[in-house]
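Most newcomers find our protein records easier to grasp once they have seen one. To make this concrete, we reproduce a full record directly below:

…
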Amino acid sequence: MDIQYENKVMSSFLLYIDHMICKKGNAYSNASSFFYETSQTFANLYNYSAPYKQMIVDESISGADVMSGVYLDNNFISVGQSGLNSINHVEGMVHFSSQITGSNRLSGDFSLKDFNVYLTNKPEEEVLFETKYHLRPTVNETPTGLRPDQITYPAIFLKSIAGTNTPAAFGGLDKTVIEARCIVLSESSYQLDAALSILKDMVKTTVPFIQSDLPFNALGAYTGTSYNFDTLKATKTGTDERIFIDEVNVSKNITAGGGYKNLNPDIYNGFIDFTLNEFRYPRK
C-alpha cells in the first residue's frame, strides 16, 4: 500500500520529537563499544550489534558523534569498504555483506540518545505494565549485542489515538485533526520532567513532512549520505508541507492498577497528548 496522509504525519512527528529532545535537551552521551554478531536476518547481510541503542544519526545535533564508519582490527572503514554495507543507528547495528569472524574485531564511536523514540500501536496498558524493557548497561557486565526486537528505556512511544475531517470551506477544504500521544518512560523524576518540558514547549509549532526525503536504505540504515533534520526542515516552506501543533496536555506518574503485576517501580512515566491540525483537500 502507498503511504497515506496519517503515515506521513506520524513518521514526520516521530523525527521531530527525536530531534527536539536531542537538540534542546542535549540529551545524549558519547560512548564506544565493540560490535557482536547478532543474526543474519536482513537481505542476506551479516549483522553486528552494540550493547546499546539508539545512536544519534542527525548531523544537526551539535557536539554529537555521528558514526559514519567502524573500526575493523583498529583500522577505520567507511560504508562501502571491507564489506561494510550500511549502519543502522536506530538499532545500534552495522550490516556487512560478508562475515567477520573472531571476537573484538569490530568497534565504533557514537553518541547514545538519552531517550529512544519508537512508533507503537500498543495499548497504553501494555506499554506501561506488560512489556519487558532493558535498561542500557551502566555497569561492567558480560557484553553482548542487542537483538533488533529488544526495546531499551528510557524511551518515548508515539501513537495515533484519534482523528477527524471537518468541512472548513466550500470546494472540499477540510480541517484535519489528528490526536497523538507520547508515553514517556524514564529513569528518574528529573529526567521525566525535562523530557515533558521539551515536549510541552512544542505547542504552537509546526511539524515538517520530511519522511520522503530521508537518505536511508530500505532497512532504515545509513549508506553514506548524511541526515540533517534542520537542513531538510528548511526546505519545507509550503503550508501543505507541515502540520500545526495546536494543543499539548501533560499528565504523569500513572500507577499500577486493575491487576497489573509487571510494573517496574524504577520507571517514571508520563503522558503527553498532542492535537495536530491542517487545512487540506482530502478528497482530491
About this structure: Confidence is low (pLDDT under 50) at residues 137-142, 256-261. Helices lie at 5-24, 124-130, 189-200, 229-234. The first strand starts at residue 28 and ends at 34. Residues 5-24 form the longest helix (20 residues).
